[in-house]
Amino acid sequence: MAGILKTIESIEKQVESFQIPWVTIESKKKDPYRVLISCILSLRTKDKTTAQASKRLFKAASTPGKMLKIPARRIQELIYPVGFYRNKSKAILGISKKILDHFEGRVPDNMKDLLTLKGVGRKTANLVLGLGYNIPAICVDTHVHRISNRLGWVKTKEPHATEEALRKIIPRKNWVKLNTLLVAFGQNLCLPVSPFCSRCYVRNCPKTGVERRR
Predict the structure, then answer these.
(1) Measuring CA to CA, which residue among 179, 206, 75 is closest to residue 195?
(2) What are the tens digits of pLDDT across the range 50-61?
(3) Which of 133, 161, 182 finishes a domain?
(4) Residue 153 carries which DSSP code?
(5) Which domain holds residue 177?
(6) Are 179 and 194 in contact (CB under 8 A)?
(7) Do 14 and 58 share a domain, yes or no?
(8) Measured between alpha carbons, how far is 31 from 44 in angstroms, rounded to an integer?
């Protein structure tokens, strides 16, 4: 565990100069609804596009009640060109309605209820718990899955298995920030193909699966 903590410290120091993910920036407003909707928008979408779409959407509506007053077509216009913007507009309206109808207008603060929201999977739910409520949770996306395996922390084939494995070896105090660190690290330096290993602060990395590096 000491080795993992040292690696996390090295990554944290390195990403100080990188742009952190938009959802993390949005979470500073301490509003779980905005974290949830921003995460929905971010799926299969570049971070810059997510940020711009989120700003436009939240300027028009930043609560479930206000969101339901906006027609789906208008939401599509506001969030375009995020990936699958038509489907996401429907998901946003559906989620907003269920939050009002079943959860008294408050985003659920537990995994079980979050997963009842159509369009919300474990990745999004964990991000809402961690960034929205500061509840210890490990959000595993493609960056976290890839880098955890590359560093040799885990040997897993899919994100849920990665989450379960990381929960056993990462101290709880680091769970919430892990996604932010590894996403920023993965977007800027530890790339899927040809990572910038020569610039990396992490030492003794096994570089699992890396065929080419810079």
Answers:
(1) 206
(2) 999 999 999 999
(3) 133
(4) S
(5) 2-18+138-199
(6) no
(7) no
(8) 23
Q: Cα(47)–Cα(34) distance, rounded to whole angstroms?
A: 15
**φ and ψ of 61, to 5 deg:** -165, 130
**Residue 1 reports pLDDT greater than 90:** no
Q: Quote the number of domains for the chain.
A: 2
Summarize the confidence of residues 98-109 as an average pLDDT: 98
Kindly state the tokens that stand for 150: 């590359």
The answer on 66 and 129 residing in a single domain is: yes
Q: What is the pLDDT of residues 138-149, one digit of tens each?
A: 999 999 999 999
- The residue with tokens 């959000």 is 139
In a domain, 204, yes or no: no
Do residues 32 and 124 both lie within one domain? yes
Alpha carbon distance 156, 159 (integer Å): 8
* E strand or H helix that includes residue 64: helix 64-67
* Percent of the chain whose pLDDT exceeds 90: 95
Question: CA nearest 185: which of 17, 46, 44?
Answer: 17
Last residue of one domain, picked from the residues 133, 165, 187: 133
pTM of the model: 0.94
